[in-house]
Amino acid sequence: MALDVSVDLCGISLRNPLVLASGIWGSCAETLVRVGRAGAGAVTAKSCSLEPRQGHPNPTVLDWGHGLINAIGLSNPGAWEEKRILQRAAVGLKEMGVPLIASVFAETIVSFQRTVEIIAQAEPDLIELNISCPNVEDEFGRPFALDPIMAAKVTAAVREVYKGILSVKLSPNVPDIVQVARAVEKAGADLLTAVNTLGPGMVIDVHAGRPVLSNKVGGISGAALRPIAVRCVYEITQAVSIPVIGMGGVLTGEDAMQMLMAGATAVGIGSALYYYGEAAFMRILGELEELMVQEGYSSIKEFRGCAHG
What we know:
Layout: E1 7-9, E2 12-14, E3 18-20, H1 29-37, E4 42-44, E5 61-63, E6 68-70, H2 79-96, E7 100-104, H3 109-120, E8 126-130, H4 137-140, H5 148-161, E9 166-169, H6 177-187, E10 191-194, E11 198-201, E12 204-205, E13 210-211, E14 218-221, H7 226-239, E15 244-247, H8 253-262, E16 266-269, H9 271-276, H10 280-295
Parallel strand pairs: 3-4, 3-16, 4-7, 7-8, 8-9, 9-10, 10-15, 15-16
Antiparallel strand pairs: 1-2, 5-6, 6-14, 11-14, 12-13
Helix pairs in contact: 1-2, 2-3, 3-5, 5-6, 6-7, 7-8, 8-10
C-alpha cells in the first residue's frame, strides 16, 4: 500500500507531520539542518527574546521516571544573533524542502512586537509566539497564555507588525484552553501550537533533602503530559477553524496517531529526542506508517480528527 504522510499546514507543505518542537536542541543553525536531514517534516528553532538570556544554571533537566521536568530558563543569544542563525539554517533546510519555524517570547507586548520584527527579517516560513512558558513566571509575571484577554492582545499586537503565518503556543495550565484558543484565533492567529509544558512541578532529591533542579521548579513534559495534551488538542480542534500542531509526550507512532486523530494537523516532537536522539523522527514515522498499514489507512487525512466521531 502506497502511503501519503504529507500534510498541509496553512499552505506550507510538510513531507510528514513530525515537527521539531522549540527549545529541544539549542540555538545552532547546523543542528537545525541536521534535524531536517534526520527526517523532520518541519523544524522549530529555540525560542528567542529581544535581548540575550543566559538561562538557569545546571541541573536543568531530569528524567523522573514518568517524563521529564526541565527549567532551561529560555537561554538564547537574542533576536539579532538569532536572525543570523535562522538565515544560515534556512539555506540548508530549503534545499531539503523542510520548512523553518521561528519562535519568540517576551515579557511585554512591545517587546514581542520588536522581537518579531527582527526575526521576520530572516524570512522563516512561520513565526510561533511562545506566550506560555511556565519556567520564568517569577521573572516575567503571569504568562500571557493564562488570560484569554492578554493572549488576544499580544496576538493582535504582533499581527499589526507581521503579515506572515503566525502560530500561538498555548499552555495546558488553564481551566479552559478553548477560551484562550478562540481568543487568539479571533485576534489573528493562523494556527495554534498546543501545548507547552505543564506545571511548574517539583522533584525533591530525598538524599540531599532539596529540589533537584537549580530553579527548584520546572515544566513537566514527556509521557506524563501526553493524555492532557491529547485532550487539549481534541477540545481546541472542536472549537476553532485554524490548524493545530499538537505536542506533548509524543514518543511513538501510536502517540502521533492519537494526536492526529484528536484533530492535530501536525505533531510536535520534543522529549523523544532526549530518549532517542535524532533517530526519533524516523523511528516515530516508521511506527506511524506501520500502524497506518495495519489499520488500512493510505493517507493521514483519512483518520485526522476521526476521534470527534
